[in-house]
């Protein structure tokens, strides 16, 4: 479902450009609004959420999908934790569909998907690993890097059980916005993938904005 | 055959299975669900990765020919036989709360061996025996269970997916810690707590040759086998079967 946000960029307490191939890790407080903008279009934002109070409780794709009874994410989707509690809700979405089946790219899965010699190409999982090992105060490690959301990616399931990587539905300036339902650690890899159309073979920047809880 | 047993419904078990072994699972009465997770015993951080397994093989369901991938681009095991046709790996487990809400909780104190265990706690118990905890769980396989997807993305559990005597067989391509439970699938709408036994048979497996069905099922699997054979060759362990070793 496409739904735009009433929030104005000028009221945001935080704005940051995240270049392709880089990561972003920050705390977002309960009630705050987090917007991720696909600045130039067709750019995958591989995103993980953790409870700041207990990072072992984290985003769970399987609980999120099962509880909403649908394999796609959009406005109204409640992002659930490994304890099936609501971490955040998607409150605005100008794209209409986001993926949480495909996971993040990794140098190792790239060898399987494309060629063994692709093992040295940059990948989301390497950005995630660097993020957690250089930000030890969040209490995260490789153990915590699991099944993420791919905002702005379109991965349709076919009725006979196939999985397809379709052209993105997103475009320049499209965005998704979430309201945090508890204090969260949010980890984004701005996907560096060059081997498939998830970034239109041209990885581009994302922008992240945060609004305080009391601004509507 | 090395060993055979029947796991009652609503129970859990674990076993380290070596490369070159197979596990055959039989749905004894129909309607079974077997939750399963896989880890590398040498490095427990290497674990079954459902997203990589699905995207590497462009599939949403699991069946014969598919390989179960770790997050390191290697194959824990391949599905060498399957007369069910569709197994789920995206719906996760029932929790204690879900079991209580749907079927009512029967405590150990009151029901003894007929207590209503849940898949999430079952994995925590089995994983905990190897030092694994909440942070180490991942999207699991649910053998014998099917959840179909409509064009709009909605999910429907198929209660007729499996039947009495239906079986599948996994051939292990590297040493693997296997956690398993026979607790109900979280979307099973049955009126009472399903309690379906599963026969488990451990046996030696013939090596995957150059013409192996799983190796050739998709071009990606050929590279997955090459990664796995490189891993074993570099360590100097296990059977260096097949091509590329």
Structure keywords:
heterodimer, A: 216 residues, alpha+beta, six-stranded antiparallel sheet, four-stranded antiparallel sheet, 3 helices, 12% helix, 27% strand, B: 245 residues, five-stranded antiparallel sheet, 5 helices, 13 strands, 29% strand, disordered C terminus
Biggest β-sheet of chain B: count, sense, barrel?
6 strands, antiparallel
Describe the global form of chain A: globular
Count of discrete domains of chain A = 1
> What structural class is derived from the secondary structure elements of chain B?
alpha+beta
Helix content of chain B: 10-25%
Query: What's the total count of β strands of chain A?
Result: 10
The number of distinct structural domains of chain B comes to 1
* N-to-C order of helices and strands of chain A: EEEEHEEHHEEEE
What report would you give on this structure?
The complex is a heterodimer of chains A (216) and B (245). Chain A has helices spanning 61-68, 107-113, 124-133; strands spanning 14-18, 23-28, 33-38, 45-51, 78-80, 86-93, 149-151, 174-180, 184-190, 206-211. Chain A is an alpha+beta fold. Chain A is globular, with a radius of gyration of 16 Å. The two termini of chain A are 21 Å apart. In chain B, the strands form 3 sheets. In chain B, strands 1-13-3-11-7-6 form a 6-stranded antiparallel beta sheet. At the A-B interface, helix 1 and helix 2 of A face helix 1 and helix 5 of B.
List the helices and strands and how they pair.
The complex is a heterodimer of chains A (216) and B (245).
Chain A: E1 14-18, E2 23-28, E3 33-38, E4 45-51, H1 61-68, E5 78-80, E6 86-93, H2 107-113, H3 124-133, E7 149-151, E8 174-180, E9 184-190, E10 206-211
Antiparallel strand pairs in A: 1-10, 2-9, 3-8, 3-10, 4-7, 4-9, 5-6, 6-8
Chain B: E1 3-7, E2 12-17, E3 21-27, E4 34-40, E5 43-47, H1 50-56, E6 67-69, E7 75-82, H2 96-103, H3 108-111, H4 119-128, E8 141-143, E9 147-149, E10 155-157, E11 166-172, E12 176-181, E13 198-204, H5 219-235
Antiparallel strand pairs in B: 1-13, 2-12, 3-11, 3-13, 4-5, 4-8, 4-12, 6-7, 7-11, 9-10
